[in-house]
Every structure is written in C-alpha cells, then in structure tokens.
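#random but structural
TW: two for the price of one
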Amino acid sequence: MEVAGAAIALVQAAEMAIKAGKGVVAIVIAYKHSDSRLQELSLRVEGIWLKTELQINVIMDIFSPHSEPTPWQERLLSFQYSCFDTLGSKLQSYLVKLKSLTGVDVSDGIDVYATPAITKIIPRMRYALFEKHIEGLVVELQRWQAVFDPSWYLLTRLVSPEVDKILEQTGSDTTVQTQTVSNLHDIRAIVRLTNQDTSRPHSDTVPQRKVPFLSPDSIHDQRALANEPGLQIGRIVDSDEVVVLDTTAYHEDSHPQTVATTVRQIARLLSIDDPFSMGFLKCVGLVKSNENQFIYVLALPKQQPVRLLRSLLYLPSPSLDAKFRIARNLAKTIMSLHAAKFVHKNIRPETVVVQDDGEGEMSQAYLVGFEQLRPDLGHSSLVADMVWQRNIYRHPSRQGLKVQELYVMQHDIYSLGVCLLEIGMWASFVGQNQQPPTSFDISEELKSKNPMKTATQIKARLIEKAETELPRSMGKKYTEVVLSCLTCLDSGATNLFEDEDDLYDEDGILVGVAFIEKILIKLDDITT
C-alpha cells in the first residue's frame, strides 16, 4: 500500500469505527438506568469510548489524505489502519446484536451523550443477553486499547510542528480533560528538548511542569531495597508517603551540566499526569547527592509492599497470571521509554520492583534503576565493565571494556528477553551467593580469557534454555516472544524479531512498530 493510499484507507477505517462506535454507545446509554449493573457498565463503556474517539480523531487529523508522511511512517499508518479496521468490525458486530435485542434505531448523527428515551422494553430473557453483550463489549474495548495505545505514544517520535498544533487544538477543544492527549503533548515537549544540545539549558522547550528539588532531610526511614546499593525505600517527612529512592551512577568524567539537564528531562518524563499507565513510578522530586549524582524520588501508586524481582526469583513460583502480568508490565515500560526517545541500558531483575496487591499476589511490576538512562540519540559510552552478573543481560556487542556498538533500543529488547526467560522459568541466573546457580552453570564460560567468546557462548546458552524449557511451562507464544528478544540483533534467518536492515529509520518508528507486533501483541494474546 503506497503512502497516500495508506492515509486514505486509515481515514476511511477510522470514520467507519466512529460511526459504529457512536451507535453502540447510544444504545448502551439508552438503557443505563435500567439497573445498577447496566449503569456501571455504561459508565465504563462511555469512559473508554471518550478516549478512543479522541485518539481516532487526532490520528485522522495527523495522517489526513492531504498530509505527506514519510515512507517509514507508512508502517505506522498500516498498523493503525489495521487497528481501526479491527475496531470498526467489532463495533459493527456489537451494533447489529444490540439493535436486534432492543429494537433501538440509532441515526448517523445521534449525540451519544444526550441520553435518548428507551423505545422498547427488553424481555427478561433478552435482557440477560443484552447485559452479557455489554460486558463483552467492555472487554473487547479494553483489549483494543492495550494493542493500540503503544502506537499512540509512538506519535511522540514524529518530528512535526503540525502534530503539536493538532494536540494543542484538541486539548483546547475537548470539554472533558483527558490524560491521553496531555501525556502525549508533554512527552513530545520532552522529546523536543532531548533533540537539542543537552549541555545548554533550553527553557522555551521545557514542559511547564517542573519537578521540585527536595532536601535530603525531607526523606527519612531509609533502608536498602535488598542488596542493590542504588535503590532504597524511604518516607517523605511531611506526608509519611512511602517512596522508592533511585540513585544515578553517571561516570565521574560526565559533564555536570549535561548530567543535570538529562536528569531533569527524565524526571519530567516520570512526572507526567499518569505515569503508571506507561509503566513508570511517578517522580515527585529530586535530591542532589553530589555534583554529578542525583536521586529520583518515586512514589508508589498504592502503599503496598514492594520487592525487587531478583529477590522474588529465589522464592517459589507464583501463578501463571502473575508471571504474564510482570512480563507485560516490563515490555510496556520499554515501549514507553522508546516512544519518549530514551534507552534504559540497565534492565535486569535488580532494576525491577514488584508490588504486592495486599493479599500476597504480585500485582504490578515497575522498571527503576534509572542510573544510566539517557536519550537514545545522546552520547553513548563505549566503555563498560566486566561484571558477569550484569553482562549476562547485555548483548555480546555491548560487553567488554571496549564495547563494539552504540546503544540502541534493540539492546534494551535483548535485556528484556533475558529477564523474560528468568520470569518464565522463575529461576535466577545469579545465585544468592552471587555465583552462577546450578540451573544456569556458566562457570566454564566465565573462565575464558576472550570476553567476546564468553558473551557469545552465554547468549547461545540462553537461547537453548528458552527453546528447551519454556514451551512446557509458558507455552509456544511466550517462548516465541523470548526468542524474538534474544535474536533481535542477529543477522539473517536466526533473527525472529525483524529483518535487521528494516529497523533503522530517522524517527525510530520501524523498530517501535515491530516491537508492538512481535512482543506486546503476542504477550497480550496469551491467556491462562
């Protein structure tokens, strides 16, 4: 599909989805006062549809048939067209079912928020089916949002003043405030800043929201989070709110102004209206520990216990639901970082905190350990370390004292793959004594004097583990996800992620769409 044709097809699919969606919502609203359950379901449908319709309209404005998207943006257009086409088909199916049950005739131009009168009473037998359809509709809309939202945030990577103008106009025209547009607008402002020279301040491009600097005395009751020196748990003095304290570890030769500017950019990203929806803990402040190091003060969404994933991997395996939930959370966060033009560079179980739901079940996982986080087009150090406990999460090309490649998103994807393998097996590749465990004994590989040979052999061991041990415990789809991550930088047929030559474009959109299709959607499709 050529670029212009893709834009036309996208708009047509979007218009059909909106038309069907308005009809469905109109019928749901017509019966929302029938009982308390339908009223609850109606509110959920209205809330999801409000966000969905807003997103669709923004996309249509950005990729109108009169716009001139770049060739590599066609991949994003094609993906979003598929999303709208799928949504339209599902909504049309529900519209037919609901019209058949209720006899309500919805006109094309109906105002879905002006509640129409009920035209017919639904027989009791049909009423139960009607309610069941609405419950199914809520589930389908939520699933669609889970698939579509990552591509929505990829819009932050489009370098276009027109996109900012559309978002600002949408925000001013929308009577109901939505975090969806607000978050996207703020992240784009941060991206604009990261594209400039970070050694000099650029106050005119900085989002209005500023993260306060806190005094070290404002945090008390500090204690280490397991054995990870850069992470602590503490409490804010005034509110007694429990927070995670995440200390940076920039190289001592780093320029102080560059470090300070980068830290402020990251803090602003972590302080958007709803960072939890993107997989982040909310940054509520910064503490300056010395000239080149800072502490991110990260609030927890609920005051429930948190533990590092590493310490949990030493315990008995949780439910399959919990393992899949942690995997999805991590993948979503990496996508969010990429959308905001950041790479993490330090993804491992020591930088993942898992929160309890209060009843002993692992509810949410959040990526922390932002000690090396930086803009993906920023300076990437080619100097690393030889710590094997960290190296096993690094791609071979990023190992050794003198690494071979600049850091890109695919290196984070590889690290994710190693973590997903551990989560699937529910086994730590680093023993409690900081030695290789018997289940992943790489002692012989570590004896080699050739770092590249060691790295390549360990990568092969990880792939072998995934191929032989994951299918029976986590299933085929999960295994494919892990292998796609571990081979994402391979060349040729062994790369299950995407053709390496097709992943490099000016906006970083191709690798983002590939990650959505090969990782996020497959994880969301897994059912237990």
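TW: number two ↓
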Amino acid sequence: MTPKHSRGPKVTRACLVLSTLVGLSLLTVSGSDHIIVPMCSEVRGFAGESNHLVRIGVSAPPGDGEAIVLIVRPFSSGTEGVSERWAQINATYRLRQGVTVSSVSNDAGMVLLQDVEGGTNIDVEIRRVRPDGPVPFRFWSYHTNRPSCFIDVSPHTTFVAAIPTTVGQLVLPARIFFKAVPLPGAKSVMLRVTDVTTGDGKPERFQLMRASDMQVAATYESGKLIPWNASVLFFSFSPPISANKELQLSVSVVWSNEGVAPGGADGSNGSLPPGTSSGGASGGSSASDGDKGHSFFFFLFLLLTGVTSYMCVGAVFNYRVQGITEFP
C-alpha cells in the first residue's frame, strides 16, 4: 500500500520539473526570436534589452551603384547628450557566393551592404556600448538608388540620422526615398529636408516623384509650401557628392489646409508637382477672361444708355424751347 501511495508525489514532482523545463525553453526561444520587419520600417527599442533583434527580408540583391543601408540612431531619454557610439549594429547576412558573414556599424551607426543574396534575411543585433545606462534607439533600413520601399515621415515622426552620401565604385549619390500620407483636408504640404551635420540646418533640395512610375517629376527647395491633392506623397533626396562620406539628415513634413498657387515661387522649376492638376490654374484663367468679358459688355451698355439719353433730351429741348417739330 505504501509504494502505491508514494507514486503520486513522484509523478507530481516529475510533471512540475518537466513543465518548468518546457517553460524555460519557451522563454529562451521567445527571448532569442527576431522581430521580422520589412525593409524601410522603423524599429524603436533599447539596445541589448528590447526590440534589439531584428530580421529584415531582402527581396532583391543590390545592383551596381546600389546598397542596403542599416542605421541605428541612439537618442537620449533625459537632458544629457547623445552619441552614436552608444549603440552598435551587428548584421549577419549571406553573400551571393553563399557565404554567411557579419558586419558591424561604423562610428556614425551605419552599415553599408553592397553584396547580399536576394531572397535571404539580414539578422540585426543592436548592442549597447554605453556602459553606464540604457540606450533607447531608432533603427532604419533602406535600399539606396532603388525605390523599392520608402521611409515613412509624418508630423509626429521625423527622420533624423546619418546617411551615406555616395555608393559604388563610380561614386554615385546614395539616394534615399521617403513617403508621407496627407492629413484629412490637407491642400498643401511643406517638406523640411536639411543637413544638420554642422548644426545650422542647411536647407537641401529634394525630388517629388510620380506614383505611377516612381520617376522624378519636380525638384523643390526645403521649406516651401507646395500644393498637394493626391493620396500619398513620394519624394527622394540625393546627397551632394563631396569629400564627406556621411551626412546628418533631418526630414520632416507639415500639412496645411490652406491652398497655394501651383508652381511659381514655391517650385524651383516652376512646374506643377505630381498629384496636382492644372484645373485650378485653368479655372482661374477662365474666370479672369469671364470677368474681362463682363466688364466690356457693361461698358458698352453704359455707352449706349448715355447716347440714347442724350438724344432724347436734345429732342425734347428742340421741341419745347425752339419749336422744332420736324426731324431729319
């Protein structure tokens, strides 16, 4: 009887140990899982603590004059300063030759990958380098010189990070692509694209793109109000080629419900931006022509009225005063 009763506690202890091991294994697996995000998505977290493991799918390998760029931007949660050296990217990926390699970010928090096999993943680990406290970060990825994806910017989300200025052996500008979704009722937009490398916020030119073929439609200056009545605004920035291989870029967007005349002083090339129609301009021209026509007919009416009144008054005067009863 005694052995029969002692089997229950043993089974209970075995089940408890087994469930504990299973739970620990699940925690280990879930803790090592990467966040799967598409290219151009932004990830926020704490280096080495949360959201610091990211997996990015590579749909197409970089071509000539192209590269995949990974950026980490630490930011301060208090009033103290911030340094790009607080966090480091460790990227593991597969080359076209089938070899798996790893690369780490430079002092600006960037990794430039020009040889990545398509259809594979890039496993990113964002490590904390700062020894005396947590490091909150923002992380981006994008494909230079290929509008396959776009980084989102909004009135509440500003892009501020270091980007490469050139890529490839031919030293081509490392073009970066953005998109912005209009607010309800918005009729115009102001894009601020500035170089904040030296801290003075130098305005830069950017290119608006057609949604139909993703080709450049117009070039504009930063800080100008542009009419916009389309759904999504696509634009890009090509860094100027210089001796500096990196540029601190800030991109923000402001939507307005006030209309603005298309082209003119706001557009550097005076052309209509993509997504806006010339109906407003032609409508204004038609209204102006109509006003001119109404003014002409009103003047003609006044002239005829004056001549008729003069003839009537003259006829009455001749009949009453001078007694003229015959009219030629």
